[in-house]
Amino acid sequence: MDYTKAYKVRVLPNSAEPGYTPILTSPIDERELYSGDFAKVDTVHDIFIRAVNAAPSAGHLGYRPYNHKTGEYGDYVFYSYAETYERAANIGSGLIQIAQGVAEKTNGSVKSILDRKWPVAIYSINRVEWTLVDLAISAQSLYSVALYDTLGESAFEYILNHSEPHIVVCSLDKVPNLLKAADKLKYVKVIISMDPLDEQANFESPPHFQLKQNSIDVLKKWASSKNILLTDLPAVESLGKAKKILMYPPTSSDIYTILYTSGTTGNPKGVVSTHASYAASAKTCYLQRGIYENGISIVSYLPLAHCYGRNFENFTRLHKGRIGYFSGDVNRLLEDNNNMNPTCFTGVPRLLQRFYGVLSSQTVDLEGPRGDLIRRAYKEKVENMHNGKGYTHPIWDALFFNKTKRFLSKNLDLIVTGSAPLEPHVNDFLRVAFISDVMDGYGMTENAASISCQGIGDVSSGNSGIPYSHLQVRLRDVPDMQYFVTDKPHPRGEIVVKGPTLFKEYLKEPEKTTEVLSEDGWFSTGDIGRFNEDGSLTIIDRKKSIFKLSQGEYIAPEKIENVLSKNNLILQSFVHGLSTKNNLVAIIVPDPETFIPWAKKSAPSHSNSTLADLTKLDIIKAKFISEIDSFCRKSGLYGFEIPKNIHFETVPFDSETNCLLTPTFKLRRFEAIKHYKEIIDSLY
Predict the structure, then answer these.
(1) How far is CA 202 from the centre of its chain?
(2) Which of 209, 258, 362, 415 would staple 205 via disulfide (CB 3.0–4.6 Å)?
């Protein structure tokens, strides 16, 4: 590769070494992170205070009140930045007093409470109270331990014992689970319900956060029997307001949060990140993504226990933007977006692929004169877009695309996605249909969700953009997988990164920390990447999950599963092979919306059959195997990478029932191998 032609990036001179590419970084000067408007923004708390001072009356945290009489959700109601500040200050003050009281009662160390720097666990779906508590924690130099709402008992037991918080703040529905496990929770002394423990009928929470008063009284007695203080957030807030303890702001080196990685193998790792890491991440996203005339506002639904959701809220706060919380059910996500009409949407590729499927069927896939006209409009807009003329068109938008834009939000300016690139035709369609930037990004928990991202007006596809302004990125050889930085036409290898967003350590696991974080600050991601001609980065493989077939071919199952995920007949897949066999097999979860019509067309005599019945037909299985063989070859897979036999699974993988997914929807590969062992054996 000729790095002099990598016009999107800055190539550090003389940085190439044997087995490594040169170091690539952003053309944006990283000094902008620490100068000008950002000169005194060194912590996540600083980001919040900056917004409070600049826009105290602007709306910040919003929710949709629930009407118990009608069973409906109202319009979004927002707390201003000033109101958010006041509530966070009072909650933080109350938390210190609660902890101090428990320490005095149990002969604990009051000094250690007042010295701060201790953890508070948060266990809930995204909601206003989640962020109020997080802001309160930071304002007192405490740090959060974030738990996914979907965690089962064994998972939250491990995390709470591993991270040692004395206080857990949770939604009311989590209280019984915590009390049930109380004897196994070595450190938990206080449970704070985000929902009131009294007068539930008058509260604006939806039904899944409601309990009858007699049930709440039982919980209080149960907690008392376990020597656990059970109280609620309104009481903590009132306590903090009555006797104020001033904010105790953190320094940049203080811990901001501990997020637990997905744990696809063994126990999850606690990723310890500082305020410096997440402040730098938010600032560099601000610089890379640019300024939008209508500001940044979002409906928050991606878990705040994940780096992506957390970082995007900090990024929004840096823009002094509004954050409206979803109403608790992803099936109402479009309704929530249509009610708030935010400027930004964050989504995973599979969800955006579904949007594409719905909207394309209503537009470019229509038959007849209207379909012809829409296709003409679409073609012209795509050509304009790739010729640098932007996303808008006065005639075609008025006729067609303002309507498709309103599918998500009439104010939409930006869609941010990650984890896997969208197909070019899907990217083009979304940009045209939503009249919006669609930016693909790449990040990990260990670097606060920011390694690379596309910028404003970047209409390319199949890449995750360029390194953020703070970050240095390079590739290194992976001989076992036959990836080399000398590969033609583009270098390939493991992605290694360096910069201020990197995590501090894995909690209590120094050996695992040193495995991935070198003494000179380079982090080994375990992802395989390719530098493209323009300097952009494409993720092509994963290092950890490779295995060999009997004839010596190395298999990267995630790569194959990513290809299969782009087939509209497939909802989920799990690819596996045995070292004693020379071919692969796959467990396929079909997408009912597309698979059923396809199967009935393939077997007309079974037009009244259910999904379960259709998947049992030999003719359907044979045609499906032929379909994916053709699809995989067109997608560039080698013959040995294509599954030769499959099993249809009609029950989707999830994180609660069959526990085959992590809370971030990654496949628990070793659990899947155990779960499907007999079926896999039978496929051979």
Answers:
(1) 34
(2) 209
Domain boundary among 233, 250, 267: 250
Helix (H) or strand (E) holding 274: strand 270-274
* Domain contains 397: yes
455 within some domain:
yes
**151 and 125 belong to one structural domain:** yes
What is the token pair recorded at 661? 């997914």
Q: Say which residues have a Cβ less than 8 Å from residue 259's Cβ, sequence separation at least 6.
A: 146, 270, 271, 273, 305, 306, 307, 310, 445
In a domain, 601, yes or no: yes
Buried b (16+ CB within 10 A) or exposed e, 463-502: bbbbbbbbbbbbbbbbeebebbbeeeeebbbbbbbbbbbb
Do the bridges between strand 584-590 and strand 570-577 make them parallel or antiparallel, or are there none, so unpaired? antiparallel
CA dihedral 111, 116, 119, 123 (to 10 degrees): 110
Tokens describing residue 470 = 């703070």
Do 526 and 559 lie in one domain? The reply is no
The secondary element (H helix, E strand) that includes residue 135 is helix 128-139
Q: Which residues contact 457 (CB under 8 A, 6 or more apart)?
A: 388, 390, 437
Query: Could you tell me the pLDDT band of residue 262, with boundaries at 50, 70 and 90?
Result: low
Confidence of residue 517 (pLDDT cuts 50, 70, 90): very high
Same domain, 648 and 587: yes
* Run of H or E including 525: strand 523-531
- Give yes or no: residues 528 and 552 share one domain: no
| pLDDT 10s digits, 156-181 | 999 999 999 999 999 999 999 999 99
Give residues with Cβ within 8 angstroms of 540, minimum separation 6: 492, 528, 529, 530, 559
* CB burial readout 314-345, b (16+ within 10 A) else e: bbbbbbbbbbbbbbbeeebbeebbebbbbbbb
| Residues 411 and 529 both lie in one domain | yes
pTM: 0.86
pLDDT of residue 207: 67
Look up residue 560 and give its two tokens: 């194959």
pLDDT in tens, 194-235: 999 986 655 666 766 777 778 888 999 999 999 999 999 999
**Euclidean distance between CA atoms 626 and 632, whole angstroms:** 10
CATH code at position 238: 3.40.50.980
Range of the domain at 378: 10-31+281-320+328-542
Name residue, tokens 């379960």: 612
CA distance 476 to 478: 7
10 Å CB burial of residue 516 (0-12, 13-18, 19+) is middle
Write a three-state SS string for 670-682. Answer: HHHHHHCHHHHHH
Query: CA 279, 513, 449, 659 torsion: positive or negative?
Result: negative
Q: Where are the beta strands (DSSP E) in 148-250?
A: 167-170, 190-193, 229-232
Which domain CATH number covers 523?
3.40.50.12780
Distance of CA 81 to the CA centre of its chain: 25
Instruction: Say whether both 498 and 359 belong to one domain.
Output: yes
Domain holding 611: CATH number?
A: 3.30.300.30
Main-chain dihedrals φ then ψ at residue 182, nearest 5 degrees: -55, -40
Q: State the chain's maximal CA–CA distance in angstroms.
A: 80
